[in-house]
Amino acid sequence: MARSTRTNGRTTPRGRRRFFNYPRSHVKSFRRWLPSWRVVVGTMLTGVALVAGVLVAAWVTTDVPTKLPSVGAQTSTVYWGDGTTEMGKYASEDRTLVDYETLPDYVGNAVVASEDSTFWTNSGVDFRGIARAFYNNLKGGGRQGASTLTQQYVERYYTDTVTDYAGKAREAILALKITQQQKKEVILGNYLNTIYFGRGAYGIQAAAQKYYGVNAADLTVSQAAMISGIIPNPTNWDPANNPEQAEHRWKRSLDNMLKDGHIDKAQYDEAIGAGFPAAIEYVKSDKYAGPTGYLLAMVEKELASEGIDISEADLTSKGYQITTTIDPAMQKAAVDTIDTLPQESRGDDNPVSPNLRAALVSIDPNDGSIRALYGGADFLQNQYNNATLGAAQGGSTFKPFTLVAALENGHTLDERYDGNSPMTFEGANDGGDWKVRNFSDHSWGNIDLVKATAQSVNTVYAELNIETGPDKTAEVATRLGITKGKVAPNASNVLGTATVTPLELTNAYATIAAGGQKATPHIVAKVVDARGNVKYEAPGADKRTAEFDTETMAATQYALSQVVEQGSGEPAKALGRPAAGKTGTSNENKSAWFAGFTPGLATVVGLYQTGPENEQEQITPFGKWANMNNPEITGGSWPVEAWTSYMQAATANLPVGEFLPYTPPKPKPTETPTETPTEEPTEEAPATEEPEEPQQPENVTVPGVVGMESRAARAQLEAAGLKVRITEEFSDQQPRGFVISQSSMSEVPPGSTISLVVSKGVDPGQQPTEEPTEEPTETPDPGDGGGGGPGGGGGGGGGGTNPGQGG
Question: Where is the composition biased (Gly residues) (predicted)?
Answer without folding.
Answer: 783-807
